[in-house]
Structures are given as structure tokens and as C-alpha cells.
Amino acid sequence: MTVIRVALVDDQALFRAGIRMLVDSQPDLECVGEASNGEEAVTLAAETMPDVMLMDIRMPVLDGIEGTRRVLEAAAARGEPGPRIVVLTTFDLDEAAARAIRNGASGFVLKDADPEFLLAAIRTVHAGSSVIAASATRELFQHFDSRAQPTAPPPSFGELTAREREIFLLAARGLSNAEIAAREYLSEATVKTHISRILGKLALRDRVQLVVFAFEHRLV
């Protein structure tokens, strides 16, 4: 059995203790270290090389948004992929969670989520998927500041084929691979291939970042 190495980053020691107990209660999970701010998280990631890092948004010294960027930037400088980062947030921190995802986080979990959901989220991101369903992520990013001026899509968006743009828009609206396949009369394998190519062309890490990209550029 593969054991998933988990690191915790939160400025509240009591909260960390609770999460550590939850993680260590699972036979396939192991807590390998804790940090109280984003700056400490960079050192922790380099020393313990966790598979998944749970990162709080609001912390002293260095918040989770910048902490996420620095952890992944440092890993890239070492030639490593870095941990899959899940940001911990609350309902009123939607835009902050979005900024963390732009910085490379794999998704978000609400701090009052059920323990079972948090455990499932850790396993999900470790497997390479988004931490939350695309439809729920889409609802989150609909709360972006509507007054912000949209930015033009990068030239790479123009490299998408007509079919890839169709798949992109459906994925950005929250449809799963199965739903896209049924709607477009394609196999799920074909849809998965299209999604992989889209992510590659747009230099996006996963479907969560695809949704952010779509809303950021007002494509949906």
C-alpha cells in the first residue's frame, strides 16, 4: 500500500493537532510535518518532500497564497514537481482561494468540511485530480469581483482547435467527462484526451485552473 505523505500549514496549533490526528488515523496517510506560516512551509516542503500539503489562506509572516507560489517555485528550482497543495479556506475567502489556485494550488477545501471530505480530498489530489468537482469550483469563481476588467486570452488560446474550444467551454461550465461525452457523442477516453491537450496548450495544471482561466478571461 502506498502511503501518502501529508504536511500541514496553519497558524492555529489546535487546528493542526486535530488534522494531524485525523490524517494519522488513516492507514494510507502519514503526517510528515507542520508549519505555522507560508515561509516555514517552504522549508518544510524542502526537508520532508510531502506528496500533499494542506495550506491555510490567512497566516502571519507569509499567507497561503504567496506560500503556495514559493513552495512550488522552490521545488521547480530543484527540478522536483513539488507537493499537490490544497488550500484551506472559508466561505468568505473565495477570491483568495482563486488566487492560490492561480499560483499552482490543486484546489480548495472549506475549513468546516466533514473529515471524510478532507480525507477524500487528500487522496484525490494525490491521484492527480482536482480536489473538488468542477461544477462546485465554477460556482465559487462566479463570486469574483464582476467589476474587474477581463483580460484578453493569451495567444495559446488561439491554438485550440474548434473541437477543443467546445470541450473547453463545457468543462469550464462544470460538466464532467461523462457529461461532455454524452452531449458531444464522444467516448470518455476521447474527451479525456481533448482535456489533456487543452491543459497542455494553455499550460494549465488541472481542471480547476481551467475554470479559473475561463472566468478570468470571461470566456463563459
UniProtKB/TrEMBL annotation:
<dbReference type="Pfam" id="PF00196">
    <property type="entry name" value="GerE"/>
</dbReference>
<dbReference type="InterPro" id="IPR011006">
    <property type="entry name" value="CheY-like_superfamily"/>
</dbReference>
<feature type="domain" description="Response regulatory">
    <location>
        <begin position="5"/>
        <end position="126"/>
    </location>
</feature>
<dbReference type="InterPro" id="IPR039420">
    <property type="entry name" value="WalR-like"/>
</dbReference>
<dbReference type="InterPro" id="IPR000792">
    <property type="entry name" value="Tscrpt_reg_LuxR_C"/>
</dbReference>
<feature type="domain" description="HTH luxR-type">
    <location>
        <begin position="153"/>
        <end position="218"/>
    </location>
</feature>
<protein>
    <submittedName>
        <fullName>Response regulator</fullName>
    </submittedName>
</protein>
<dbReference type="InterPro" id="IPR016032">
    <property type="entry name" value="Sig_transdc_resp-reg_C-effctor"/>
</dbReference>
<keyword id="KW-0805">Transcription regulation</keyword>
<feature type="modified residue" description="4-aspartylphosphate">
    <location>
        <position position="56"/>
    </location>
</feature>
<dbReference type="InterPro" id="IPR001789">
    <property type="entry name" value="Sig_transdc_resp-reg_receiver"/>
</dbReference>
<dbReference type="Pfam" id="PF00072">
    <property type="entry name" value="Response_reg"/>
</dbReference>
<keyword id="KW-0597">Phosphoprotein</keyword>
<keyword id="KW-0238">DNA-binding</keyword>
<dbReference type="InterPro" id="IPR058245">
    <property type="entry name" value="NreC/VraR/RcsB-like_REC"/>
</dbReference>
<keyword id="KW-0804">Transcription</keyword>
